[in-house]
Every structure is written in C-alpha cells, then in structure tokens.
Amino acid sequence: MRLVSVDLDGDERPGAVVAGPDGVDRVLDLVAVTGVATLAELLADDVALAAARTAAGRADVGDLPPLADVQLAPPVRPAIILCLGYNYLGHTEAGLGQEPYPNVFIKTPNVIGAPGAPVVMPRAATEVDYEGEIAVVIGTTAKNVDEADAMAHVAGYTLFNDVSDRGWQNRASQWALGKSIDGFGPLGPWIVTADEVPDLAGRQMEVEREGVVTVRASTDAMVYGVAFLVHYLSQIITLRPGDLISTGTPARAPEVQALHLPLTHGETVTVRVTGLGELTTTFVSAERL
Amino acid sequence: MRLVSVDLDGDERPGAVVAGPDGVDRVLDLVAVTGVATLAELLADDVALAAARTAAGRADVGDLPPLADVQLAPPVRPAIILCLGYNYLGHTEAGLGQEPYPNVFIKTPNVIGAPGAPVVMPRAATEVDYEGEIAVVIGTTAKNVDEADAMAHVAGYTLFNDVSDRGWQNRASQWALGKSIDGFGPLGPWIVTADEVPDLAGRQMEVEREGVVTVRASTDAMVYGVAFLVHYLSQIITLRPGDLISTGTPARAPEVQALHLPLTHGETVTVRVTGLGELTTTFVSAERL
C-alpha cells in the first residue's frame, strides 16, 4: 500500500494511493475508514492499517481525486531524523573511506519539505548539493530491539533528498549546519508499507539532475542494512512512530563528480527507486523570490 | 524572573519562582494569571510575561508551595537543540584547536530531561561524560535576524548538561550518536528571563562531580557570544520559541582531565553559574535499575 499525507488547507490527513484501471493514481481519504487523524498515527496502528488496506482494495477508484490534483504534505513530520554517511560502497564523500561503525548525523525537523514543494536556497547558502536516499519510516516505538525483531518496527519506506550546503557542512568538523537548513529535506511522495518491501535489496536508484542521470546504483551496495540500523540506533535512542532513518546516498560516478557544480536557481532533481516511486524537487534562490 | 515548568501528573504548567522573606523559593502557578498553558507559549508572549511579572511581585508568598516540594518538568521541550563545540578558550575536546567558524552539533529532542531527574546510562553506553553549559532559550521566532536585533529573540537562559558518551561520539567523524542518547540532556532548573541578564559576561561557571570542582571558568572565555550565534544560526535555520542554543562547555583543568574517568552508577554532577542557579544530576546504570 502507498500512503500519503494530504494537505487540506493545513489539515494533514492520511490517504492511500490507488491506481485505477486507466493507470492513473488516485487518492482515497483514510480518516473516515480508519478513524485515525494523521499518517504517523496510522502507521503505528495495525487495526487501522488493515482497515485502510481493505478500503483501498474496495474503493470505487473513478470517484477519487487524481493524485496529481491533490496537495501533498510530507508523509510524516519526524522529531528525529538520523542519516547515514558513507553507507554505499564506493561513496567517498569528503574523501573519507569506509569506517568501522555507521557514521550517523542528524538533520533537524525544520528540514522536512512536502513532495513537489521547491527548496528555497537561502541568501547565506554557498554550495547547495543533493543526495538521493531511501528513508526508513518507524512505525512503532523501538527501544533496545534485537536485529531479528527490528523489522517489526518499520512502517515502510519513502524517498528523501538529503539536501546539503557543502560550504556550511565543511566549515567545521561537524556537518550539522550544512545538513539542517530550512527545507533541506524533501520527503515522499508516499510511504510504501513494509509488507510490500520484504527487502530493500536489488533495487535500482537513479538520481537525475536537469534530465541527466548523475547517480545510478543498486541498493545491493548498501553497507549497513535496515534491520541492523534499527537495532543499533535503538540501543541508545528510542525511535518513535514517524521518525526517520535515511540510509545514505550512493556516490556520483567519478566523471560526473568531476563536472559537478552547486545547484542554481531553477534546477530540478529527481530521486527514483524501483518500487518506491520518484521525488522531484526544484531549487530556487531566495534572492529570486 | 525565574520561570519553571511544573509537572502536575504529566500536565506541564508554567510557574514563577518567588523567594519568600525566609529565603525559601516557592512556586506561583502562572496559568490563571497569564491565561497561557505552557512555558514555551509564555516566553513568546510579552503581555503574558508582563502579567506574570506583576503577579510574581504581588504574590502572597507564604501561601505558595516550596519549590523543593514541586515536581519540575524540563522548562522547555525544544524541537531543535544546537550545541557549540570548542566555544571556550582553552577547550580542546578531541584535541582540536580553535576553528574559524562555530563548530555546531545537534542533539535530538529525546535527550531533554527534567531538572533533578536521574540520567539513565543505557547498557550500550561505554564512556559517559558530563559537560556543564549555559543554554540560550529562544523566545520568539528568529529567521535571518541581524546581530543587533538578535537579543530580542532570546527569552532567557538556563543550565544544560550536555551529557556525552565519548565511545559512541568517537566511533565516526560525526559526534551525533554520542550526543543524542535518551535523557542525555538535563535542563533547568529554571529559565532566568533575559531582562535580568543583560549580558552573560563576567559569570563564574563551576561544575562539581561528587563534591569536587572539576571545571571553574568565567563566561568571559566564551568565544562566540549569544547575539552572534542567534544571528549566525538564524540565517539558515528558523529558530522557534523553546528552541535551544547551548553555548558550549569550558575545559576541565589539565590536572583534573588527567585523572578523569567515565561516570559510574550513583555519581552526581552539579552545574552552577552565577545568577542562573544550579542543576544537579545523578547518573544511574540501566543494569542497576
């Protein structure tokens, strides 16, 4: 099931995306059928999820609004966003090699942006860059969970653009500020529930900048997998429904990296992963608004 | 004015601490006199703050419960906690010297603990350490503010123990996990409002471990000051009421550092700053609970 959060004049309601026989994605509102007000609550509630699944299966698709006509909110609004650095073989961001433990950094909650919403590059930004990633959405509270039990706490997966300002990121040893600029984390468009993703392996990720593919990688190159990460992190941080673990970005090909320049006003980046959809973001300069 | 958040069976209400003629601190509930439900809302509301000040000045102190009998909550529950590394001259945590920009890291919101509540060191913890700091509490939303206007966005100051697990902190280049363990951020006991703190300069900080002073420093050794930090950060992150900027810890004296060992079950650490009060925390091992 694909779950979205629909923005109805600021009221964020859970919805299911249902493909009609015409191939057009439409959105079923889930508030009435589940009795649950937000997508984060829905993710933590197995009974409501089952009701949503049944209703989505039975929906009279022709009556539903097309997804393209619906204003989406970010699927969740996490309090905690933990991101992996160097988590694909071959990714040598900042020139470092593989490390013996996951290299985890934090993005603050102000980064989260709705799918399709532009990212505004502030005046103080210096070198804005994109990182296409798969984000794990926590479904139920995870504290001290074993690796074998970890997947039961995963609600599903969505796409994340770990937008980064390389200038701010590299001003000091800690990357925090370059990673936490307002809106520097477009998320979505939907959460694919974990029952439809038994394993992240064997998926293709592509990142396209202005129509040119700059990253092409298989999730098989992921170093630390989802179950391990949930276990590892939950030893010290209680993960709650809606919290995110973003699994890191694959490297750009060296010949692409050699030509890489910071993002400029009007450029568009799409992150695309087999079975998880695609997330397109336009970057705009605050000076031009 | 000293403002606290009182925990009444999970309901967190704003209160003012008022010293009686007997020298005993007592707590005035501010919900009725201000019409505001939480301390974070109160901090953002000048009219309510003025009403609180008037009520605190007129309170019949003898009728109020002693502070010692009141259960305190953390004064605020920030969504964003930005912390400074290396922000006192002479502090060479991790052996690094002074950097050309503030070295800012993030702690996740799960760290925040009530004043007086114990810090539980989880089983996975390896080398737990304390860092006494002064935290700036944001009062009104700050985005792109000039240094000259920055102080208008500061509600006040409180004490923070930036508890850190050095083992986790140093597993990778990013300190995030060692800084973000559940409960590793005791905060309080109160917020001293900014009108009573025209300047942080000239204050003495002492940190005491098991009755032995291990840190003694003047705030005059602070590198980046409050107005600059609010300005600097607000260029890229919208700071909201209740958000925290923790201004960093002074170094332990070299002879103290040479004998330093990780915290063990039952040890107590007190952070004390002139005019801002003191914050005492007991550390307990999860294994011993």
Give your account of this protein's structure.
Two copies of one chain form a homodimer. With 289 residues, chain A is of the alpha+beta class. Chain A folds into two domains: 2-73, no CATH class; 81-288, Fumarylacetoacetate hydrolase, domain 2, CATH 3.90.850.10. Chain A has eight helices and 18 strands. Chain A has helices at 31-34, 39-43, 46-58, 147-150, 166-169, 176-179, 226-234, 254-258, and strands spanning 2-8, 11-19, 25-29, 72-73, 81-85, 103-107, 112-113, 119-121, 128-129, 132-138, 154-161, 164-165, 185-193, 204-209, 212-218, 244-246, 268-273, 277-285. In chain A, the strands form three sheets. In chain A, strands 1, 2, 3, 4, 5, 6, 7, 10, 11, 13 and 16 form an eleven-stranded mixed β-sheet that branches. A five-stranded mixed β-sheet of chain A has the order 8-18-17-14-15, with no helix packed on it. Chain A is globular. At the A-B interface, β6 of A face β6 of B. Chains A, B: Belongs to the FAH family. Chains A, B: Residues 81-283 form the Fumarylacetoacetase-like C-terminal domain. Chains A, B: One of its GO terms (biological process) is small molecule metabolic process. Chains A, B: This is Fumarylacetoacetate hydrolase family protein. Chains A, B: Pfam families: FAA_hydrolase.
What's the short version?
Two copies of one chain form a homodimer. The first copy, chain A, is of the alpha+beta class and 289 residues long.
